[in-house]
Design goal:
The chain is an alpha/beta fold and 274 residues long. It has a domain at 86-268: Rossmann fold (3-Layer(aba) Sandwich), CATH 3.40.50. Helices cover 25% and strands 23% of the residues. It has seven helices and 15 strands. The strands form five sheets. The protein has a seven-stranded parallel sheet with strand order 9-10-8-7-13-14-15, sandwiched between helices. A two-stranded antiparallel ribbon has the order 1-2. The longest helix has 14 residues, at 2-15. The chain is globular. It starts with a helix and ends in a 6-residue tail after the last helix.
Length: 274
């Protein structure tokens, strides 16, 4: 009960100080896609307009567009909605310890998919997925192009590649330009999660330096998702959580030890009080 009271109060305060009237930067980024033999490669382009209702489009090089649609066997085109929630966690300096603590507090039966961006040295092979996998009951793997999100599984962005969530529940990797001087970028992950999963997206900003994730948390909130930030006392570095909090888009500011319980509450409830 106390958890929902804190969440409801945070949203009430933000709603009454004109938060929804604040302009949000438009971001556009492209992800190369694989082509079938003999066909020209297509490009998946995300146009993230955080102030609009439509955030994601799929655009081929022939100029055709579609949004979360597929054809059934009877030829009828229908809208596709992801069937589960997605939790996107972002961290930088001090992130390994923080991620370990959050993930170790979640059961193997956790009913949502998890995607992780941790700023890493691009010059070295990462052992992040292996290390985290030994500290949690969840299935942890390094994300690969085309991986499909599934409950109880953690997908970790590889070094020097942006990780993106697609509307069909798959993942994409790209080596497009650096964002906030980093790759992978928390902003791109969160914006793609907001575009693809809307109210079913949950963002968690953990310890780290810099301001990566500030645009992403605003996109998550604009599309009805939930944002959690680690509090200053439990953060080894408060740059990223602090910057996220300053946007006014954070629903819950929690000690590291309380984040797993909050995630369990959010993903097992039918809805979130306004």
């Amino acid at each position: 009960m106390f958890f929902w009271l804190r969440l409801g109060c945070a949203r009430f305060i933000r709603a009454h100080r004109g938060f929804w009237l604040q302009p949000i930067e438009t971001r556009v980024f492209s992800v190369p896609m694989h082509a079938k033999p003999g066909e020209q490669a297509a490009e998946k382009e995300y146009n993230v307009f955080a102030g609009s209702n439509t955030m994601t489009f799929l655009k081929t090089q022939t100029g055709k567009t579609a949004r979360m649609r597929e054809k059934r066997s009877d030829g009828v085109t229908q809208t596709v909605r992801p069937g589960l929630k997605v939790v996107a966690l972002a961290a930088s300096a001090g992130g390994l310890s923080a991620l370990s603590q959050v993930l170790s507090g979640l059961p193997a039966s956790f009913p949502a998919a998890l995607v992780v961006v941790q700023h890493l040295d691009p010059r070295h092979r990462s052992m992040m997925a292996h290390i985290l996998g030994r500290r949690t009951a969840l299935d942890v793997r390094e994300a690969a192009e085309g991986d499909r999100l599934c409950p109880g599984t953690v997908f970790v962005a590889p070094p020097d590649k942006h990780l993106l969530v697609n509307t069909d529940g798959t993942l994409s990797l790209t080596q497009s330009e650096l964002v906030h001087f980093v790759r992978p970028s928390a902003d791109l992950l969160l914006e793609s999660a907001a575009a693809s999963y809307k109210e079913d997206a949950i963002a968690v900003i953990l310890t780290g330096t810099g301001s990566d994730g500030t645009m992403g948390v605003q996109a998550i909130r604009k599309m009805g998702g939930t944002v959690i930030a680690q509090d200053e006392q439990s953060s080894e570095f408060f740059g990223m959580p602090g910057a996220a909090i300053q946007t006014g888009s954070v629903d819950l500011i929690l000690p590291l030890t309380e984040i797993p319980e909050a995630l369990m509450t959010l993903v097992t409830k039918e809805g979130i009080p306004p």
